[in-house]
Amino acid sequence: MRLQGKRAIVTGAAGALGTVIAQTLAREGADVAGIDLNAEGLERTADLVRAEGRRALSAAADLSDFDAVGTAVASITDEWGGVDILLNGAGGGAVSWFHEMTTETWQTQLDRNLTSVFNVTRAVLPSMLEQRSGRIISIASIAAVSGGRLVRGATAYAAAKAGVIGLTKALAIEVAEQGITVNALAPGAQATPGRDNDTPERREALLAQIPTRLLGDPAHLAQIVVFLAAPESENITGLVLPVDGGHSI
């Protein structure tokens, strides 16, 4: 119960990874509010949070819409009086060779993976500044570090996630003296349900690029989020932590 009494927002809380993170935060004592476009999925996650004995809120919103995000965050802060933890977990990739990429694909990837982080962090930060404490944790990607060798054609995704890393480092410096830490995780391939569709050949090609020959376990990633949100991490900020089985070595 390292997060007893803390109030957390998890974006992408209806997705496979966001659900695990939200439930894990609740298990450690945090109340959890989810923001996602998928209202039905949000309610399923909220039920898991309540099953852990914690308060849950859901706010369906398009994370690329600045005003909609502001309204969603305001509804949460009005209810709870503030936010202690922000986990920027929403995102998603699209495969497109760069020489064939449309401006629509490019912009969609930026909106989904970088603008969404700006919108939510911008909406949450004033309450953290007011209380002079907070933990901001964003899910970047090892693609931002390695160029996306695990999935070719991920140029737009890698660029957007690299933006998340830049935002993380710059903001960490900006708010460090206000008691707010800003960190990012750079996961490699995760063992989410979507990977169940891999052919044996695709799985072998993937594992061959990972020194540990292991896909990431979302439960393990969630525990790293807990660590970065916990009191003992008050002096860790601006960190970009690869969680990739050694892929980026």
Number of helices: 8
Number of strands: 7
CATH architecture: 3-Layer(aba) Sandwich
Please identify the structural class as seen in this structure.
alpha/beta
Largest beta sheet: strand ordering: 3-2-1-4-5-6-7
Radius of gyration: 17 Å
Amino-to-carboxy terminus distance = 34 Å
Low-confidence stretches: none
Give the full name of the CATH homologous superfamily: NAD(P)-binding Rossmann-like Domain
What fraction strand?
A: 15-25%
Major β-sheet profile: 7 strands, parallel
Task: State the helicity in percent bands.
Answer: 40-55%
For the record, the CATH class is Alpha Beta
Q: How would the global form be characterised?
A: globular
The name CATH uses for the topology is Rossmann fold
**H/E element sequence:** EHEHEHEHEHHEHHE
Give your account of this protein's structure.
This protein is α/β, with parallel strands linked by helices. It has a single domain, classed as NAD(P)-binding Rossmann-like Domain (Rossmann fold), CATH 3.40.50. 46% of the residues lie in helices and 15% in strands. It has a seven-stranded parallel sheet, with helices on both faces. Strand 1, helix 1 and strand 2 form a beta-alpha-beta unit.
